[in-house]
Amino acid sequence: MKKAQFEDNRAALSAMGRKGAKEAAVTRAQRREEKERTLLEIKLANARLGKETDEGDIQPPDPEVVHALEDELRSREEH
Asked: Which entry of 37, 44, 50, 52 is 20 to 30 Å from 58 by CA?
């Protein structure tokens, strides 16, 4: 009888472990996505500032780069 109870508990623990593993995988994916989104937002903010040349002049931001980063950020938010 005790063996049967142990096996039942093992099955329950195994099911809880699978559920925990799935939740952990989802959490890792969400954190990775948040990190990627944050890095993309930083790149976009930096692209909007423009670039400094070797002479110290500030070049205006490249509209194509800014537009591409905005599109990438927008597409990630839609998913």
From this structure: 37
Cα dihedral angle (14, 19, 21, 25), rounded to 10 degrees?
Answer: 170
Helix (H) or strand (E) holding 52: strand 51-52
pLDDT one-digit tens code per residue, 19-28: 888 898 999 9
Q: What angle do CA 8, 13, 17 make, to 5 degrees?
A: 150
Please report the pLDDT score of residue 16 as a whole number.
Answer: 78
CA-CA distance, 36 to 14, in Å (whole number)?
33
pTM: 0.64
Of the two residues 50 and 5, the one the predictor is more confident about is: 50
Residues 57 and 51: their CA atoms lie apart, in Å, by: 8
